[in-house]
Write a structure and sequence with these properties.
With about 180 residues, this protein is mainly beta. The protein has 1 helix and 10 strands, in the order H-E-E-E-E-E-E-E-E-E-E. The protein has a single domain, classed as Beta Barrel (Porin). About 30% of the residues are buried.
């Protein structure tokens, strides 16, 4: 089964559940910091700012960096993007959990030429993001955030065990603050 089919089936399964979950008030602002681990040895760090248009819909901006140690050489990339989260407030989950699905797009610059046979040491790409996760509220203004995300790029800006690639799965864990 392809990665797209697995992700799609997971999103459909989450969407079929019904009930009541946590709801954030419209006009709430969110600051977040998160770290991610690809299924290899990549370290990823992002900072986000979001604004809730409604209890379900949030728009976000994000900036991030990725580092990968390749022995004698290092791989670095910078990411700038926009995201839209749809929070599944009607799910039958405990009231302190807020599941969501996320889509987004952005720009990424990677310099992995030193660790690959690429002709250029810098690659620029358009990146699409699709994912799902949950926010676990520790208090009304603080939540732990965890999710699984798929990233696809127009160029080979990711490394998979040292080889250039145009896509990756990423597990992200972070802390969000609301005001």
């Amino acid at each position: 089964m392809s990665n797209w089919k697995r992700l799609g089936l997971g999103l459909v399964a989450v969407g079929l559940m019904a009930g009541q979950g946590f709801a954030v008030e419209p006009d709430t602002q969110e600051w977040g910091i998160s770290g991610g681990l690809e299924f290899t040895d990549t370290l990823d760090l992002d900072v986000t700012y979001g604004y809730f248009l409604t209890s379900e819909w949030e728009i976000k901006g994000t900036i991030g960096a990725t580092w990968q140690d390749m022995g004698d050489e290092d791989f670095t990339s910078i990411w700038l993007g926009g995201l839209v989260d749809y929070h599944l407030t009607a799910l039958d989950v405990p009231e302190y959990i807020l599941p969501y699905v996320e889509v987004g797009a952005g720009y990424m610059n990677s310099d992995f030429g030193a660790v690959s046979d690429a002709e250029e040491s810098n690659n620029d790409a358009f990146v699409l993001v699709l994912g799902m996760g949950a926010k676990y509220f520790l208090a009304d203004n603080t939540a732990l955030n965890a999710g699984l995300f798929y990233q696809w790029a127009s160029e080979d800006v990711f490394l998979d065990e040292g080889d250039p690639d145009d896509n990756q799965f990423l597990i992200r864990v972070g802390l969000n603050f609301y005001y």
